[in-house]
## 1
Amino acid sequence: MAEAPIKAFVCGHPIKHSRSPLIHGYWLEKYELDGSYEAIDVAPEDFAHFLHTLHEQGYAGGNVTLPHKESAFKIVEKLDGAAEKIGAVNTIWLENGHLCGSNTDAYGFAANLDQQMAGWDSARTAVLLGAGGAARAVIHALQERGFDEIRIVNRTEARARDLQARFGGTTSAHSWEALDDLLASTDLLVNTTSLGMAGSAPLSISLDPLPDHAIVSDIVYVPLQTPLLADAQERGLRTVEGLGMLLHQAVAAFERWFGVKPEVTGELRQRIIDDLRSGK
Ligand code: ATR
């Protein structure tokens, strides 16, 4: 008897802007796999029931996006190390009937830099702007790569302190006012705030204090070239854009359900860029 197709999903609320079906659909076709990946709008009040009935619905697993990543963290029975550290789940699967959860955002962040700027992790000191969920994933990635100092800078300093308490040792918390002084001895600057995203205020900070060897990276990818990255290039600094983090976080999830580690190709990147430009 032929094996049944493997079914996966992304669920969120709203979900219609998710690019994940396009990414996973591209790989399913490229690797000629018998599977599907669909977007499902699940309201917060229905989320627990949705997860508890995955097996009955025929799903092998799926992605979880806003606003469900923290609820998924509480509901799943088994968490991997990254999800545990980050406190949020973006990838789930069933193992002998048990709900398991991971967070592939930290992997995605690091793999994107690996692909775009090999050797980036020889940097020792990072400044991270923001203290939300994305910041937690980036901090975990930087700790995994052995950064000596991760300085968390946030408008609301108390949130930066909460993250410092969570991640300990190599992290420190700072107010926005401290930025100039911190940048002078920073190898890697990462924006994890929503500033600079189309429709949000721009991120306007002076990059003058950064040393010439510094790398500037943004996790915002709409627009692809954020004002921060444009400023950094103007100053002659090396930059890494954020779309790759979205593409690479999907790699680890796809492999989990479909058993093939897919490649982030130029063709895939272009498809997503075209789709983003179409403004849907
Ligand atoms: P996510 O989980 O996607 O990272 P979030 O939890 O809403 O999102 O966090 C958004 C981040 O952007 C926060 O660090 C936020 O700063 P506050 O903690 O002070 O709210 C930051 N942010 C959003 N708008 C900002 C603004 N206008 N100026 C400075 N920081 C801003």
Note: Residues 130-135, 154-156, 159, 192-195, 201 surround 2'-monophosphoadenosine-5'-diphosphate (CB under 6 Å).
## 2
Amino acid sequence: MVDNQLRRRGINNTSVLDAMLSVPRHLFVSKIYRSMSYTDNPLPIGQGQTISQPYIVALMTELLKVDVKHKVLEIGTGCGYQTAILSTLTKKVITLEVLNTLSMKAQKKLKMLGYDNVNCYCADGKNGFPKEAPYDRILVSAAPEIIPEDLIKQLAPNGCMVIPVGSLYDQFIYIITKDKNNQVHMKKSTPVRFVPLV
Ligand code: SAH
């Protein structure tokens, strides 16, 4: 997976590649899809949701430029796979999932596998999580039509947010940065297809 799907497509950050090597993706995938855990596609995780394609997880993580000192907010825990990747790269991860069943399951899985610097909450990610704000990094893995204002507010100076934006068939990753003077900058990146942020 790392050689064929990630390195070959230009993912070259060694910390990101190491994280993708170390997290056991097959343990986040349900038993019936386990043999496909490392194939080049998203897979169903129940409740009509999916675990993202490995390349997209790696790309979003690389674009986020996470380091060990950061506090990271993730929106859309899903099965917790992307959460685990972030957990290996930074100090603290707060992850929000709107569907209780998925949130509980991911929380249990992450705890069992020893990703101890993660706090899982069942909550609407559009509001962010003000109690722990501001965040150095925000990664969103479901797509809104418009970037939620609260997420921009909760981004720290020198912070960065990676977020898919748009409708199902016209969606791009955006990189939102806040400079040290709290000025917000926006850059359109790769076309993608994420489930909607509800
Ligand atoms: N990163 C996940 C991918 C999950 S798919 C993984 O590795 O498995 C996107 C997730 O976003 C879904 O689980 C969906 O329920 C969740 N979601 C959608 N709208 C949301 C919202 N408003 N707040 C929080 N989570 C949301």
Note: Helices lie at 2-6, 14-22, 54-64, 81-89, 100-112, 149-153.
